Amino acid sequence: MSRIHSLGCVALLATGGLLGVWSTSRAQAPATKEVAKQATQAQGFIKEFGTMWTFDAPPLEYWKATYDFAPDQAWLDRVRLASVRIPGCSSSFVSDNGLVMTNHHCARGCISAVSPADTNFQETGFIANSGAEERTCPGMWVDQLQSIEDVTTRVRGAVTATTPAEQVAQRDAIIETIQDECRAETGLTCQVVRFYQGGMYSLYRYKRFNDVRLVFAPEGKASFFGGDPDNFTYPRYDLDVTLVRVYEDGQPFKPTHYFPWSENGAAEGELVFVTGNPGSTGRLLTMAQMEYLRDVSYPARLKDFERRLDILRELSAQSEDARRQNENQVFGLENAHKAISGYLRGLVDPEIMGKKKSFEADFRRRIMADADLNQKYGTAWDNIARAQKELASFALESRYHTFGGSQLLNLAGGIVRWPAQAALSDADRLPQYRGEGLNRIRGFVLRDQPIDTEADKLSFASFLRAAQKELPANDLFLETVLAGRSPEVAAEALINACTLTDAAARKALLEGGAAAIASSNDPMIVLARKIEPMTRTQAARAAALRDVISANAELVGQAIFAAYGKALPPDATFTLRISDGVVKRYPMNGTFAPYKTTFYGLYARAAEFDNQPPWVLTQRWIDRQDRLDLATPINFVSTNDIIGGNSGSPVINRNAEVVGLIFDGNIEMLPNRFIFTDEVSRSVSVHSAGIIEALRKMYDADRIADELQGVAQPATR
Amino acid sequence: MSRIHSLGCVALLATGGLLGVWSTSRAQAPATKEVAKQATQAQGFIKEFGTMWTFDAPPLEYWKATYDFAPDQAWLDRVRLASVRIPGCSSSFVSDNGLVMTNHHCARGCISAVSPADTNFQETGFIANSGAEERTCPGMWVDQLQSIEDVTTRVRGAVTATTPAEQVAQRDAIIETIQDECRAETGLTCQVVRFYQGGMYSLYRYKRFNDVRLVFAPEGKASFFGGDPDNFTYPRYDLDVTLVRVYEDGQPFKPTHYFPWSENGAAEGELVFVTGNPGSTGRLLTMAQMEYLRDVSYPARLKDFERRLDILRELSAQSEDARRQNENQVFGLENAHKAISGYLRGLVDPEIMGKKKSFEADFRRRIMADADLNQKYGTAWDNIARAQKELASFALESRYHTFGGSQLLNLAGGIVRWPAQAALSDADRLPQYRGEGLNRIRGFVLRDQPIDTEADKLSFASFLRAAQKELPANDLFLETVLAGRSPEVAAEALINACTLTDAAARKALLEGGAAAIASSNDPMIVLARKIEPMTRTQAARAAALRDVISANAELVGQAIFAAYGKALPPDATFTLRISDGVVKRYPMNGTFAPYKTTFYGLYARAAEFDNQPPWVLTQRWIDRQDRLDLATPINFVSTNDIIGGNSGSPVINRNAEVVGLIFDGNIEMLPNRFIFTDEVSRSVSVHSAGIIEALRKMYDADRIADELQGVAQPATR
């Protein structure tokens, strides 16, 4: 039940929200002595690129002009140091005694890990009534950004070669060197971050805290009330908060900077900031790239989701057991469908795309107007467009000429391909076999896992029917697989006779190498042998085109930086940003969605669905309802610019006080991945007042609420 | 604040809901000895024509097949007799002592009329604590449908002439005769109703009750909570109910049939019926008519609303006083915009229009396949299409070549035109001057009313700017009005020098007749003289084309009846219908709208907008909140097919018990005017349980709640 990750991750299929644990291995850490000279960028503000500002280029003039707000460097430093990063999410120091606030869905790993054998804190919630009861989260860390340093010149200077491959190697090497030096010099966690697709490189230096302990988590039903249906939507009623504490040398860490608690939270219309680590956006994509997503990639993915959902629903209809077994996958696919549909909604909106088009035209004019820039970057857009067009020309084949329709065929494909790929040099392998890939695929083939052959038949037949519907009648792949049979008959025959359900059989083949594979009579192996060359040629062709796109996209990024400088915030990089916005209702379904929701609304929504899942209250929330002031806000919305990775970000006011905690976006926000708009798109946060009300009245956690509100400072905690 | 009426009425601009007081002078009253032979129509059910069934053709086979529900004739008779009609709305008997339930917004006239000088029951609500306190509603009546008789043969038989005008006269005469005879014979209120645009004529006989007294009305803020923004939308929290009592001979009337109160209301998924009087639908319109609305008429109206809203907002921005003064008009226009946008949403939906197109193709094939039908009706569609096309060809001129841009020009136009129109025979006049029109327009010109010349200048200049933008550069009308000046300068000059703000001046001109008008130097009169011929020619041309459309639409209606019989429910006629549906949640904004709302939700929505208007609770509702069981449902939705005129309809279960009270549709229902769908469109009702809870706990009205629930029968009431 982790939330949705950045676009394109397999994890998109996990059940979850718009935001969420941003999973990437890129996140390490680093920064500069001279932080943030403010750029003169107010005049360059282009709304559709959003407001994910870096701390070394806050748009001070724009803030002054728009909100009459002019923070000094001390304010910016304080806010930066109070905003901290955790694995895949954002968070912040919220007390002088090391308390860190994030989302429940960002701390699920810890909450599960610290649960005793007989209790699941995910279900029951967890409240530490004293410091001694706080439980260490294994493997969790907190990163505090110390400084940012522009290292573009040094990185560029090290790249002297002329071939792309050598250039990449030189760049990777200098980045490694910079990070190593930084670590050695400062003892900090150092990371060189690539902005504007290579237009700028910055060294981010983080202080890392490794002793993190769980202090408070509500029940999963309270943090994720409304479950998957309400996911990505608003009005919402979720107490998606968890508190942990950072320790140093066995004692609570005393941060110099933290966010005090606002007395009342934010009023409608009030300026608020979100400081956090957005994971990934695609706002610098070219029109051609967006059009490919719009016309080819997303429609195909949606169709694929629908096909798979049909199968799962058919399976689920067979028994209550089957339903329960497939439930999570159904929810996951439905959510992925909701997400992609949302992205697509932006891309098919003529007004939104019109803005992008105007921008690109202006941008290209600026580049063409400068002979030097034109020489360097002028052809990048057309190169990308050409490659996208070619990719589109065999997109159907790429979708269907694969091993992917059947789990058994997929294993057969892995077996057939492995020895040949292993024999090649790393650079000559298919992308997924490079580096660690080779061993990963081997492990995947050998892993002993039960295979439901009946489900695999349904799945394969459905895949083949879809292929039949879309591919030309004389398609070679289909002819090879079907051999004159119907999809159902072919799937039945191939899977019934297949021996690869047995892990030992797979192991024997893989270890027997090319010879064993060549002589196998297993029908799936035979089939995989026949289609492997076709799939390989196609995959290689697609990979080459993607390399062209990627290299030229890098040029476009550099060109953007050359043309606009830091006036445009760079695409999200899972590094610290500060986004401005206002708390604001929005037009929805003919009326308005209110700027905040209340506990009244939580009880309303439960009652209005007859307390059926996922609109279920725990017994605690039923029993203690009378204690609550039901008019207390629980969630609210604002126009801040966020995306996956921002989960757990604090929402603060001008005084850098906590007014809320980001945990999702509304469904209207999904198109913001590519083009930012704020007419109806909203960030969704837990309200500071709702957190206190729940801590005090629902969880008897005055100790924690007092600490947040600075009411008292007990000697020991 | 009356609700929205049928499409095309001026009253569309009144503030109000999707449903509402259906204003028409057509509603008189009538019926047949032999009621309702059930037609064998289950096989003919075509979903996009909806489910507004007449009581003489209930779709028994379809109900049996769909819901396993097979009511007998006694059930149908009981339901028919318990369902009664009031001016512009629907209602029902809900006790054996003559209590009638309708919407608050249907009884506003009565509630105002019975308010004493020092109190406004619209604001305070009204509760009669005894029969003696019940207050007579002046001019209100209740019609109970006694019988329905098919009189098609008699009407057709009387039409023997060959010219359309004579045919119309003959038809009107026979209808008048049938109604008169009926009245004389039965003492009932008799009305011949035209179904299928003339495909079928039925005599409806009503018993009319004229002594109607107010029993209970909540405060306007409770009945219309959420006001105009929430109007047409769901989730809703409106106690839009009012109870009146029918008296006969000074005593409460004892109806033989009434709807008892359901103990629990309806569960999700439950079959429910709505019995009421839908006012007007356009489901039998041809594709050409719908395309005209889609491409010409509605876009123009939306633009016009937007232009007028811009003016009103500009005026409102000048002072708080101006804002308050214009508020109702702004809300009204916004609501009209919402309604038309909703209708348009259906017409631009390719899937919805695709269904209509398929139906029309099938329908025309059936007609063409029968030589006789083809001879009679075959050319109707093309005739309509041709006329619509011609109308579209000068639609721009029709919009702008009018007196309508300025209030003063409009008065001048009336003055200039009146003597000439009065001199013509009735049939030769422009449509709006025919019959009563002549005197109405005279009255309008003479009425002494303040004219805000500054607002009129803004309005006229805006109208002229819009005309300039859309009409060709050399447009004669514009050249005449502007005479080389800018819109602003022209409006300023014309209005400053105009004397028609003075009612006496208008009277002098009108009474001075053609001579006085011809010699007037008032610049608006001069202008009106110049443009009158142009506007008249155009209006006459449009009127002639509309006659063609209307005559051919009648043929299409007859053809539908000939091809499908009663298997298709006829378009709404503000006569009694029974619609089946189920109580059901629906997909909304990425999640679900619940099937019901609760008092929790009412308090939530008030709190979530900080109790700002129109989300305001009265002091009673604030003070007495603790008395309520907040989980009690207040509103719910179902898939029944309703439209304006259905306001106040009872929602009943299989046992003919009241489970709710229709008061609106959701915004997704607006496209149903033309093509019925029930994926996301829903009827919105007050829940039976919410009415009882409010009566007992909020209004101390146990007397009334007991009567509804049949708990006790006090000797006197």
Task: Give Rg of chain A in angstroms.
Answer: 27 Å
- Give start-end ranges of low-pLDDT stretches of chain A: 1-16, 24-44
Largest interface: A-B, 35 and 35 residues
Helix content of chain A: 40-55%
Query: Which class best fits the helix and strand makeup of chain A?
Result: alpha+beta
Quickly count the helices of chain A: 25
Question: Quick one: biggest sheet of chain A?
Answer: 11 strands, antiparallel
Distance between the termini of chain A: 32 Å
Query: For the residues shown, what is the average pLDDT of chain A?
Result: 90
Number of strands of chain A: 21
Beta-sheet strand percentage of chain A?
5-15%
* Multimeric status of the protein: homodimer
Shape estimate of chain A? globular
In short:
The structure is a homodimer of 717-residue chains. Chain A has 717 residues and is of the alpha+beta class.
Descriptive report:
The structure is a homodimer of 717-residue chains. With 717 residues, chain A is of the alpha+beta class. Chain A has 25 helices and 21 strands. In chain A, α17 packs antiparallel against α19 (487-496). The first copy, chain A, is globular and about 75 Å long. The two termini of chain A are 32 Å apart. In chain A, 50% of the residues are buried. The model of chain A is unreliable at 1-16 and 24-44 (pLDDT under 50). The interface between A and B is medium-sized, with 35 and 35 residues.
